[in-house]
């Protein structure tokens, strides 16, 4: 079992980066990154240049490193992650958190340099209709690489945990996404939309 200490250098790769402005992975990186920093862990977060017009040196005390990536649906993630790996090896990172099952094919590179990897996978991505046959096959292969070469694999869904258990007999670590609770808000906004306190059902499509 890996134990974090305050003398290590942590690199977080595989997402668009922070400040979070796209999806759940980026929000997860931003929220966990600031918590790692609070524990005294030096945290480098790798960001894609094509996603940010304004380049920051740091955000919420995490160090930001920008890497080039093409504007391509199929190559954007894998190329930026590969370039991130080259940089973090040069920077002598001690441990890597890699987001996205589609990046797992690159984990053996880090293993060669004896850098442990925590893989955060985004579900059974190969089942999504947006991908064609070869893309789905590629993602299936990557899911195998994740369980084979990562120190541990993290999922945010019990359904996904069960899929990996059935497919590979592998027990992923299940960590739920958290949320930020705001106790204070303008209660008048409820009346504007004819809503009652504690009697709201929110559906997001």
What's the structural blueprint in terms of helices and strands?
Layout: E1 9-13, H1 24-38, E2 42-48, E3 58-59, E4 62-67, H2 76-90, E5 95-99, H3 107-112, E6 117-120, H4 133-149, E7 152-155, H5 158-168, E8 173-174, H6 188-192
Plain-language structure description:
- The chain is of the alpha/beta class.
- The protein is 34% helix and 17% strand.
- The chain contains six helices and eight strands, in the order βαβββαβαβαβαβα.
- The chain has helices spanning 24-38, 76-90, 107-112, 133-149, 158-168, 188-192; strands at 9-13, 42-48, 58-59, 62-67, 95-99, 117-120, 152-155, 173-174.
- It has an eight-stranded mixed sheet with strand order 3-4-2-1-5-6-7-8, with helices on both faces.
- The longest helix is centred in the C-terminal third of the chain and has 17 residues, at 133-149.
- The radius of gyration is 19 Å and the shape is globular.
- It starts with 8 loop residues before the first strand and ends in a 13-residue tail after the last helix.
- The model has no long low-confidence stretch (mean pLDDT 88).
Strand order, sheet with most strands: 3-4-2-1-5-6-7-8
Class per helix and strand makeup: alpha/beta
Question: Biggest sheet, open or closed, and with what strands and sense?
Answer: 8 strands, mixed
Radius of gyration: 19 Å
Could you spell the SSE succession in H and E letters? EHEEEHEHEHEHEH
Runs with pLDDT <50, length 5+?
none
Distance between the termini: 39 Å
Please state the average pLDDT score: 88
């Amino acid at each position: 079992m890996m134990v974090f200490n305050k003398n290590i250098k942590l690199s977080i790769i595989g997402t668009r980066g922070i400040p979070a402005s796209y999806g759940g992975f980026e929000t997860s990186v931003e929220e966990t990154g600031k918590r790692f920093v609070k524990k005294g862990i030096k945290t480098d977060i790798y960001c894609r240049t094509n996603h940010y017009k304004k380049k920051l040196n740091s955000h919420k005390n995490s160090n930001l490193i920008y890497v080039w990536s093409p504007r391509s649906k199929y190559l954007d993630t894998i190329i930026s992650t590969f370039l991130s790996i080259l940089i973090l090896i040069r920077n002598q990172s001690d441990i890597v958190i890699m987001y996205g099952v589609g990046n797992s094919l690159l984990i053996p590179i880090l293993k060669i340099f004896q850098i442990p990897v925590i893989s955060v996978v985004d579900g059974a991505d190969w089942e999504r209709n947006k991908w064609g046959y070869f893309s789905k096959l590629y993602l299936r292969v990557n899911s195998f690489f994740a369980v084979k070469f990562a120190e541990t694999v993290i999922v945010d869904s019990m359904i996904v945990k069960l899929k990996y258990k059935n497919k590979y007999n592998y027990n992923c670590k299940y960590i739920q996404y958290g949320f930020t609770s705001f106790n204070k808000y303008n209660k008048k906004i409820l009346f504007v939309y004819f809503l009652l306190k504690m009697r709201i059902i929110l559906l997001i499509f």
